[in-house]
Amino acid sequence: MALSHHARNDVGAGTRWWSELRCPRCGDTLRAEGDLHCDACPATYPVDRGVPRFVPEDNYAEGFGYQWNRHRLTQLDSHSGLPISRDRLFRASRWSPRELRGRRVLECGSGAGRFTEVLCNTGAEVTSFDISSAVHANAASNRHFPNLRLVQASIYEMPFPEESFDYLVCFGVIQHTPNVERTFKTLFRYLRPGGRFCVDVYAAMVAYTHPRHLLRPITRRIPPARLYSMVEKAVPRLLPLSMALHSVPEAGPYLARLVPVANLSYLKLKDRQMLRTWAVLDTFDWLAPRYESPQPRRRLERWTRELGLSEVSIERHRGLYVVRGVK
């Protein structure tokens, strides 16, 4: 698939695109001399295994870094052999691969790169970042794409020029940040006027409380490696129970929610081992994050009005609100 002229210039260019980065503190350009240095202020940013890093190595997203480096390949379509990530991206956004080709796309919070892979395959010029060490899992899987630019950074201090992207995607991220409203509103500073966006967020629970919400005050304080070991031992016991309850006519889906394990049988994964692996990953993902703030629809509607966004659509799907539209 052909790349845009701008992206072709980056093929084999190594670090030349770093000149387009901006100092998150003062907004000035950066100079690469081993690390990245700002000439306008004293800031210096390290380059960690080829990835520029604009946040402290230890931060609130430690659990995400642990899980995605542990499950570097699990959710990649190229590994599973199933178009799960591709289908989710294009179903949620209603974009097409053809319209992304050659466009500048900003992916906020990439994790291990499941959607990075899909975006890069469209021929878009993809800039992707994550606050956690998951960027190294993403790099290991997707660095071969010449149209990928990858950094470790915070949504609150992105090292990019404002209003410089044509498309913006942010999946599975904003509910896990310290201030969801600030996160949501910050994203749009980097999207050009007329640019398109697709963002999702956990929907606020009204009718029931999931048992994970009762566990999280404890589990989010457990060191990631220890919690992961606990989840890895519990899932083989809990998942069969969840699936048995799920099979009960009519009431099954509601009964299955009483078991604190991620039951992803609806994905039609290839075998039981793959289902168990995904269940371990998603159950850990439920229990480990320091922050989790689901949002009501009316609040999302208010934020989009305050930002003056247009063509806004907010749809609920499997416990998520998907928000898309135009800046």
Describe what this molecule looks like in 3D.
The chain is an alpha/beta fold and 327 residues long. It has 13 helices and twelve strands. The protein has a seven-stranded mixed beta sheet with strand order 8-7-6-9-10-12-11, sandwiched between helices. Strands 1-2-3 form a three-stranded antiparallel beta sheet, with no helix packed on it. A two-stranded antiparallel ribbon has the order 4-5. The radius of gyration is 20 Å and the shape is globular.
How does the overall form come out from the CA principal axes?
globular
The residue ranges in which pLDDT falls below 50 over 5 or more consecutive positions are 1-13
How are strands sequenced across the largest beta sheet? 8-7-6-9-10-12-11
Mean pLDDT: 92
Alpha carbon gap, first and last residue = 28 Å
Number of strands: 12
The percent range for strand residues is 15-25%
Broad structural category: alpha/beta
Q: What is Rg? A: 20 Å
Output the helix-strand order: HEEEEEHHHHEHEHEEHEHHHHHEE
Per DSSP, the total helix count is 13
- Helix percentage range: 25-40%
Characterize the largest beta sheet: strand count, sense, and whether it forms a barrel: 7 strands, mixed
Overview in brief:
The protein contains 13 helices and 12 strands. By secondary structure, it is of the alpha/beta class.
Topology:
Elements: H1 5-10, E1 30-33, E2 35-38, E3 44-45, E4 47-48, E5 51-52, H2 62-70, H3 77-80, H4 84-93, H5 97-100, E6 104-108, H6 114-121, E7 125-130, H7 134-142, E8 148-152, E9 165-170, H8 180-187, E10 191-202, H9 211-219, H10 224-246, H11 252-256, H12 272-287, H13 297-306, E11 310-317, E12 320-326
Helix pairs in contact: 2-7, 10-12
